[in-house]
What we know:
alpha+beta, Alpha-Beta Plaits
Amino acid sequence: MKSLSPHLLGRLLEVSPLGMLVADFRDDGLPIVYVNQALAKMLKVTPDSLIGKGLLSLAMPDPPPPDGWMLQEQLQLGESASLLLVLPSSAGTDVQLRLVPMAGTGDRFSHVAGYIPPESLVAAGNSTPWRVATGSTVKLDRLTGLPSLDDFSRSLALSCAHADSSGESVSLIMLRVNHYNLYQDTFGAQAAASMMRLVARSIAGTLRRSSDRLARSGKGEFVLSVEGLNETQVKALATRLAERVRNLSIHHPKSTISRYVSLRSSALRAEGDSSVEQLFARAREELDKSENSELPPIPRL
Length: 301
């Protein structure tokens, strides 16, 4: 089968209902080099008005705070990321843009593709990875680059309130690195920080839905909120996250659970009459109960 000609590929992008753009990854500002008609209509601008503009400038203050560049670091690793575009006031909403790095010659990333499905239009202020509100600074956890715990807590509270009225389910998963303090005492604070960044990326890379939200909630601890999953599905997700982290094979000689860094988890359904603080307390209580108990070995993938 013959490959599409550049002309046909261009026509395909123009008739696509997906809002799409391409930015040059070789420049720190990620200048936009292509915008299709669907994206221009969503943003209520002409395509030419965006060509040459830095992609990050549409979502971050100028100049961007240092933590904002962690988005580029994530893309440089070959991982996809989400960005909330700050649109002109006439548009009346913000748009979530999914970014995917594209390899050029020699498998080095030369460009980044961004796309916006029509259904991904979200209300301004909705919390997504790398959310940036107009005129504000980026609120990220400095250690891992994940959204801040404050942002996570606000989003969880809104999700719980919505679920209480709609009947949909919202679950909280709390994840804790087994024997985190022993790891830090053995290898030092810098190594523990690097380990936490690796674990954060591993967990985030497992999540596939835009509604899944992740944050660091303490030393060696993460919280994850998921919507629309039943109890069996939540437990399966927690197991999958633990398996992925275990398979990073980060050596942990002092752990009694595994010779590698591993996770234990607690999961509970969020009830509308419970505050975020109460949910965290219940999840931690469950984790504390199992802190000194041996867990069954986590199978390698």
